[in-house]
Write a structure and sequence with these properties.
Blueprint (H helix, E strand, L loop, with lengths): L2 E2 L37 E9 L7 E8 L4 E8 L15 E3 L5 E6 L4 E8 L2 E9 L5 E7 L2 E6 L4 E7 L6 E3 L5 E2 L7 E6 L5 E6 L4 E7 L5 E8 L5 E6 L4 E6 L9 E7 L5 E9 L5 E6 L5 E6 L4 E7 L5 E10 L5 E4 L5 E6 L4 E7 L5 E7 L7 E5 L1
Antiparallel strand pairs: 1-8, 2-3, 2-30, 3-4, 5-6, 6-7, 7-8, 9-10, 10-11, 11-12, 11-13, 14-15, 15-16, 16-17, 18-19, 19-20, 20-21, 22-23, 23-24, 24-25, 26-27, 27-28, 28-29
Length: 379
């Protein structure tokens, strides 16, 4: 299956409008300003989310100032389309190892877009067709890219050229998940890039694939999730990964479990299911040092925090580390000092300082995001 050439480097799409946000606008294409500030005032981090718009999908960029203040920094068309509504996912965006390329799923047009990151802009360099249907999550490691597809319960891989940013489909990389109607939430490489992990919300399974040296799936391994409705997850240290479990939305039933990824590509339970004290924890992120995790709970409007020890065991720190209205994704600053929250329902991004003991101090709220926004990642 050949790549869809959206642009070439000399005619790459650069979109950076210069008009003010309006309170009533729901179309991000008409409400993102270009930001002006002194270099000494801004942090080194940019935050990205995905509009998932059914007419024109866009990556939305935000710059964080050193005082925690956030400003919109541009919006960049993917060349594809989204669905216009929530995808029930984590990982709609991914960065290459060197953070020079950004990858985005186009769930409505069944393809993946690649941007080169240049200063404060994103340059669209490729758009590649997915063999599966409705990609909802993407993962990148070295020169390999994989997506998980909610439309046909599959994974599919690409070879990535770090010089040009182009994607080439990996032959024989298309694999099915554990069953039909799995409702996958996320896909991720492990830190060594020799295995893939997928959470399946509807089947209450965690599926892993061991990979060969060419990055192709060798064997599929399926285990029961320790808690029901496994959703978002994040890798920590030592081959461990941590999964948020919505427990079917049972009141105060949400849990978190930890697993060890073994050398043969199978996953083994370490700890679970640890009660979060909330109703439906769906999204989970770990801090860069691997010592803490946060979950986002939409119906409870809460962010919960957990401590992680060296062996991967999990302990609840604070069931409501912050009150955040209907959160739908999370990201952590590269230095581990700030937690970002995405609220798809309330259409805003929250900025919180991470404090000792897992509590959070709110710094900022940025409003006026579009309906259906999905994914959150920091560069």
């Amino acid at each position: 299956m050949s790549s869809i050439t959206a642009v070439n480097p000399t005619t790459a799409i650069l979109i950076k409008n210069k008009f003010k946000l309006t309170a009533i606008s729901l179309c991000f294409a008409s409400c993102l300003p270009t930001v002006g500030f002194a270099d000494s005032d801004k942090s080194n981090e940019t935050l990205y989310t995905l509009s998932n718009d059914a007419g024109q999908n866009e990556v939305l960029a935000f710059q964080r100032f050193t005082n925690g203040h956030m400003e919109a920094a541009g919006h960049f068309a993917t060349g594809g389309v989204g669905t216009g509504h929530g995808l029930g996912n984590q990982g709609a965006l991914a960065l290459s190892d060197n953070k020079r390329y950004l990858f985005a799923v186009n769930a409505g047009s069944n393809d993946v877009s690649v941007f080169r990151v240049k200063d404060d802009e994103l340059i669209l360099v490729d758009r590649a067709a997915d063999k599966g249907l409705t990609p909802v999550s993407v993962t990148v490691s070295h020169n390999r890219v994989y997506v998980v597809n909610a439309g046909d319960d599959s994974i599919f891989g690409f070879e990535f050229n770090p010089e040009t940013g182009k994607l080439k489909p990996l032959p024989k990389s298309y694999r099915k998940l554990s069953a039909e109607g799995t409702s996958p939430a996320q896909i991720s490489f492990d830190r060594d890039a020799d295995a893939l992990v997928v959470t399946e919300k509807a089947t209450n399974k965690i599926t892993t694939f061991s990979l060969n040296k060419e990055g192709l799936p060798l064997e599929r391994h399926v285990i029961d999730s320790a808690g029901t409705t496994p959703f978002g997850f994040s890798f920590g240290k030592h081959g461990q990964f941590f999964v948020a479990e919505a427990q079917g939305g049972a009141v105060n039933g949400a849990t978190v479990s930890s697993y060890q990824l073994l050398e043969d590509g199978t996953a083994q339970l370490i700890d679970g299911a640890i009660a979060a004290g909330q109703t439906a924890a769906c999204w989970l992120i770990t801090t860069p040092n691997g010592r803490m995790a946060f979950t986002a709970d939409t119906p409870a409007s809460a962010i919960s925090s957990f401590a992680i020890d060296r062996t991967g065991h999990v302990a609840l720190l604070n069931s409501k580390a912050a009150q955040e209205t209907r959160p739908t994704d999370l990201a952590v600053a590269s230095d581990g000092s700030v937690l970002y929250t995405l609220s798809g329902g309330e259409h805003h991004i929250g900025v919180y300082k991470i404090q000792k003991g897992g509590t959070l101090q709110q710094l900022e709220n940025l409003d006026a995001l579009p309906i259906g926004v999905t994914g959150l990642i920091v560069r």
